[in-house]
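Figure 3 (text version): structure tokens given as input.
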């Protein structure tokens, strides 16, 4: 097995992993979880005044 074969295998595996992550990210089943996570920075905490945070 020479270095070019190894490079080809690593490239194909990396591409397959990338496609898998894209499919997982855009799946309809995960959409609700990602939408909820996207709103986390905008959720106000109880007691924000006590900890010194601004509204």
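Below: residues designed for each position.
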């Amino acid at each position: 097995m020479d270095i070019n074969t190894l490079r080809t295998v690593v490239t194909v595996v990396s591409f397959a992993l990338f496609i898998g992550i894209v499919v997982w990210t855009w799946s309809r089943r995960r959409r609700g979880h990602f939408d909820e996570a996207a709103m986390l920075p905008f959720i106000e905490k109880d007691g924000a005044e006590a900890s010194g945070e601004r509204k």
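Residues 3-50 form one domain.
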